[in-house]
Request: fold
Amino acid sequence: MALLILTFVMACAFALYGVPLARQAALKYGIVDAPDGRLKHQREPVPYFGGLAIYLAFLMSLAFTFEFRHDVLGIVLSGTIVVMLGLIDDFGVLTPWTKLTGQLLAVFVLIKSGIRIEIAALPDWLDLVLTLFWMIGLINAFNLLDIMDGLSAGVGAVSASALLVVALLQGDQTIAFMLAALIGSLLGFLKYNWQPARIYMGDTGAMFIGLLLGAMAMIGKYPSGHPLSLLTPVFILGIPIFDTLFVMYIRYRRGLPIFWGSPDHIAIRLRHWGLSVSQTVMISYAATAFVAGVGLLMMSVSQEAAWVLCLGTAGALLVATFILQQIDVRKPAPPVAAPHAEEGTHAA
Reply:
C-alpha cells in the first residue's frame, strides 16, 4: 500500500511540475486554442500540451515504482500511439477518418497484447467486436466530454477512483498501480485546468484518458453471484457514455452529422439552464460518482437487487434525457470564463 501511495504522490508531483512547463512550451510555439465565436468562447487563447504532461507524469511515476509486465507494456504502447495521434491532431491537421484509423491501430495493439473483452458465453469474434466498440467509444467519449474547464479530467479521476476500488478489492496490483498513477496525474493537471483554465489537455489528454480507463475497465475482474456484475464497468464509466449517446441522439434528431460540433452536450445544456461552470462540473463529478457507486453495489447485492439498481438508473437517465433535451441551446449561454473547443477536430 505504501508503494501505491508513493505512485500516486509521484504522479501528482510530476504533473504539478510538468504542466507549467508544457504551458510555456505551447505558448512559445503558438500551440493554443483560440476563440472562434461559435463553440470556443474563452476570453483569450489557451495553450494545449496539458495532455502530454499527464502522459509523462503517468509514465514516469510508474517507471520509478512499478515493474512493467507484458500487458502493461501493451497499454503503455497503445497509450503512446493515441498521445502521438492527439499531438498531431492538436495542430489541426488530421481528418476524422485519419484519427479513427490511428485509434483502431491503438486498439489493435491492446488486443495483440491480450487485453480484450472475454465473456465465456460469447463467441470469440463477438468478444473482439465488443472490444473494438468499447475502446473506440470510450476514447472518443472522453474527447467529446472535454468541453469545459476541469470536466473531462475530473470525471476521469472519479471514474478511475471507482475502478481503483474494484482493483483493490480483487487484489489486482497491476491495475491498482496504473490507476493510482492516472489519478495522481489528473489531479495535478486539474490545479491548472480548473476554471479559468490556464492550459487544456487537448485531444492528446482526452484520448489518453479514454484509452487507459477503457483498457483497465475491460481487464478488471467483477466477480458476483449473477451476470449483471458484468455491467459494473459500464456504470463506472456511465456518464461519459451517456453524454456521448445523448449528443448522438440530439444530433440525429436535428439532422446533423454525429461528429459535427454543436452545443448539444449535457454540460453546455446545464450552462444554458443557468448553472455556473463550477456548478456544472461539480454536478458532473457527483453524477459520475453516483452512477459508479451503483456499479460497485451491483457486485455485492443479489440478482434481484441488481436488476432494481440497473433498471432504476436506466429510468433516471431516460428522465434526464427528456428534461435536458427541452433546454433551448439556441440562445447565448451565460458568460463563461473559458469553455474550450469541443471534440478538437471533431468539429468540422
Summary: Residues 336-348 have pLDDT under 50 and may be disordered. The radius of gyration is 19 Å.
